[in-house]
Specification:
This protein is of the alpha/beta class. It is 45% helix and 8% strand. The termini are far apart.
Length: 459
């Protein structure tokens, strides 16, 4: 008896795999079928003749059609784990392993060693002569953005503008951490903004229809604060993302390897600047192209070339669609984009290599530093290190996981990739990562309690 292997689904003339394959076929998740192959696939499961097996010989060779179908685990207890990191085939349904028991992330560790950021990496900053601020940080009160504030203000002694978007789901620990930072970081100026509940609920309701959750960070914060950055001529801004989050975009087939090296491609940047000069715009400095691309996507939607690409970020695309349900929210952003593009006063979107500047970005060490230096308050779940600032983080994880598990989306849950990569790279031990997966994240087949918090606000 032959079967279509688990997690492979025929969708029209395409076989689609919902999972992460081994290194040699890692992103080969779609296979175009011939009419004869479709006829055979449609019969499965069944016995096959020699002639039919010849038609689908390539599929049987890759174990896509098989006599030994796999099953997807229904809990972490049933899951198979990578022998090196916390990746497993429950949190990442359809995860494959090589003969040594390694997951695709560990199989490709050396190949992705340089994939640290899709925006320019800058670890040292000069004092600005045009602005009273040297840099801005999108600050959530979480572990990563708090460490950034500490590094930029206390280690580099920069004049930092901390930008906080007040959301209805901010965790108690994040609120206390923000207050702690205000008391201890005397050289940082803090600005907090809140969108009206009517507008926010309209955006959230549309986003819930598209994503199954209302997570819009940091995109809506960019919409709210970009005009502020332009008005103050802030030269740089950073978001609080550690490397595991950035590299996760590659494994989720959202960012190609090229995206991580574009910032250093002198030829492409030269051609872009030639185009700007010919249209009487000032040439772009490092990080300014990334700023304009990010803000234009939020203001106007996906670039047509991006739509044609095999790479896309459905989360950002859906946030853009949701934002456009309240058109007046992006009018100030559009004006700021035009003004900054003409004047050249574009705050550069850059990344601080937190692993490098901290000597490895060990989560326990980082937590101690920001607790002692910034008044940071850990969440009630003391073993939690991933995404500590939001009460519905588990809800986001649950909805991303459930949609992928049920093969309604081919986007792998972000946190599942990030916790695996953090343990792979030594930011957290494999045992600590598995403990966090089991106790602090939203990987469940049953709807979790935190979803009620999100739904209550949407009423």
């Amino acid at each position: 008896m032959y079967y279509l292997q688990n997690r492979w689904v025929k969708e029209g003339k395409i076989l689609h795999y919902y999972g992460l394959r081994n290194k040699d076929k890692m992103f080969c998740n779609k296979i175009k079928l011939s009419a004869k192959q479709i006829a055979v696939i449609d019969k499965l499961p069944c016995e096959l003749t020699a002639a039919e097996l010849k038609i689908i010989s390539k599929l049987t060779a890759e174990n896509i059609v098989t006599v030994a179908p796999k099953t997807t685990p229904r809990s972490l207890e049933e899951a198979r784990f990578c022998t090196n990191c916390a990746a497993n085939d429950f949190a990442i349904a359809g995860l494959e392993f090589d003969s040594d028991g390694l997951c695709p992330m560990c199989q490709t560790k050396e190949e992705t060693r340089r994939l640290k950021s899709i925006v320019p990496i800058v670890n040292e900053f000069k004092r600005s002569k045009k602005s009273r601020f040297d840099i801005a940080v999108f600050y959530t009160g979480g572990k990563d953005s708090t460490y950034l504030l500490y590094y930029l203000s206390k280690v580099l002694h920069l004049r930092v503008l901390a930008l906080t978007w007040e959301i209805p789901y901010i965790s108690k620990s994040a609120q206390k951490s923000i207050e702690g930072a205000k008391k201890t970081l005397n050289t940082v100026e803090f600005i907090t903004r809140k969108m009206s509940d009517n507008d926010l609920k309209t955006i959230y309701r549309r986003l819930y229809e598209l994503n199954g959750n209302t997570c819009a960070c940091p995109s809506l914060a960019y919409v709210l604060f970009y005009p502020e950055l332009v008005d103050n001529k802030v030269p740089y801004f950073v978001a609080g993302n550690e490397t595991a989050q950035i590299v996760g975009l590659y494994y989720n087939h959202i960012a190609p390897k090229f995206a991580y090296s574009f910032r250093n491609n002198k030829t492409l940047n030269f051609l872009i600047n030639i185009g700007r000069i010919l249209t009487l715009h000032p040439p772009l400095k490092k990080g300014q192209f990334h700023t304009l691309a990010t803000m234009k996507q939020l203001a106007y939607g996906d670039n047509p070339l991006q739509k044609l690409s095999d790479y896309a970020n459905p989360l950002v695309s859906n946030v853009c669609k949701a934002i456009r349900t309240v058109p007046h929210t992006v009018k100030p952003l559009k004006r700021a984009i035009r003004r900054s593009s003409w004047t050249g006063n574009i705050p550069a979107f850059v990344q601080v290599d937190m692993s490098l500047v901290s000597g490895g970005y060990d989560w326990q060490t980082i937590k101690k530093i920001i607790t002692d230096e910034c008044g940071w308050v850990a969440p009630d779940e003391t073993d939690k290190g991933l995404h500590t600032s939001c009460k519905i983080e588990k809800c986001k994880e649950y909805t991303q996981f459930k949609r992928f598990y049920d093969m309604q989306s081919d986007m792998i849950p972000f946190s599942a990739l990030e916790i695996a990569l953090a343990s792979r790279d030594g930011n957290i031990s494999r045992e600590e990562a598995i403990c966090e997966l089991s106790n602090s994240l939203g990987f469940s087949l049953e709807e979790i309690a935190e979803c009620a918090v999100m739904k209550e606000y949407l009423k």
